[in-house]
Amino acid sequence: MKKSANxxxxxxxxxxxxxxxxxxxxxxxxxxxxxxxxxxPVKVLSSLIKEHNLLLMHTGxxxxxALTGFLLAVILAFITAFLLTHVEWLNRAFYPLLxxxxxxxxxxxxxxxxLWFGWGLTPKIIIVVLVCFFPVTINFIEGINSVDxxxxxxxxxxxxxxxxxxxxxxxxxALPAFFSGLRIAATYSIMAAVIxxxxxxxxxxxxxxxxxxxxFAIDEVLAAVFIICLMSxxxxxxxxxxxxxxxxxxxxxxxxxY
Amino acid sequence: xxxVQVIEICKTLDQLYTLDNIxxxxxxxxxxxxxxPSGCGKSTLFNIISGLIKPDKGKIIIDGQDYTGKTGRxxxxxxxxxxxxxxxxxxxxxxxxxxxxxxxKQARNKAKSYLSEFGLVGFENYYPRQLSGGMRQRAALLRTxxxxxxxxxxxxxxxxxxxxxxxxxxxxxxxxxxxxNPSILFITHDIEEALLLGDRIYVFSPLPARIIxxxxxxxxxxxxxxxxxxxxxxxx
Lengths: 258, 236
Prior knowledge:
Order of helices and strands of chain B: EEEHEEEHHHEHEHEEH
Number of helices of chain B: 7
CATH architecture of the largest domain in chain A: Orthogonal Bundle
Radius of gyration of chain B: 18 Å
CATH topology of the largest domain in chain A: MetI-like fold
Structural class of chain A: mainly alpha
Low-confidence stretches of chain B: none
Strand content of chain B: 25-35%
Mean pLDDT of chain A: 91
CATH superfamily of the domain at 1-74 and 190-236 in chain B: P-loop containing nucleotide triphosphate hydrolases
Number of strands of chain B: 10
Structural class of chain B: alpha/beta
CATH architecture of the domain at 1-74 and 190-236 in chain B: 3-Layer(aba) Sandwich
Oligomer: heterodimer
């Protein structure tokens, strides 16, 4: 009884998705909508299969940009968070700038980056870095600052220096918050790479979509959209898995059981 | 020679005159209780003895050496267990030794040999969240003891526990003292606890904290202790 209820519980989103896809397919056929306006999911799927070689090549490029940018952003975020939480004047000088930097319209920057760095991968990676950097940094800083000060005092009373305290107390305490930021960054990373490509590129899913959109091959555009969704989803799941592995103590619930 | 000497300590904290000329001594293997109302600056005194903050005036002498403003000499335990939630019980106990420069393996082995005495056998690989409040305090106490077995500062260590567990822990601490003979400075605002555990009691006034009484209660019988209880209540 309980098990079957559990399966129904987990299957609910899949059933809802199937229902919506069915509605879409049905609507497109019933109202005889032209495929260059809106193709049905069956047509999208068949284009996905037909063009899989080309799509795979572009996907590889986009994934490379997204992952490289993501990793660079995490490294930068780590260093920034450490400095801002340990050097008071740096924090006072740069924390407000960090917040204000989020008001700059990124899409304009993306255009400028293409102007400055050309049509290659560099400007896309920079955009991904800029997009992913903020959520990771802010969450990490929050995590480090929310460590119980008494906990820090205890280790100071033992004669531990700043680095030891960071390594043994602050860093592990901040990891759950760090992973929250990582999860947000993971969802943004693929999209950021695609936006970069959309504004000027010779490869990648964003480039593929602009090309196909101009020739009204909406089914292929949507096939690319499907891949983007799938990649973002898998990336988030990868972050979840990493968190599960790295924070075994976080799996214990309130009752003290796994 | 006395283990710890607190000499004429004065401290103003956040523009609040907190400690007014506090002098006290802790002799080897003695349990000295500091008794006073809540928020009277007792914890500030511990922060000064442990070296976390510097006094405005006065000195801390440990084993004849000046330790004013120097950390890393005494074991310090608070009301909160302050166990790291992301480390197992064993690692929590061992970490202070790692801070002191031992390898984690060495520190774990040392910690293991004390587990049974502290009632933690079988729980060494649990996370703190999985333990009861009393067990967590025992783990915190073992951590304190392993870091500095000779001088332990205990700041209301049992205050957050329920009455039954608290009483068990008090009896257990008495038993522990007879085995390991540490020198203990113990803060409490509970007169019963002070009389049960202490060899000597210093009574602190409300802010700014001053010592308004010192009682030697070592080895006294129940009725005699009751007399002291009345005296202390009158003082406060």
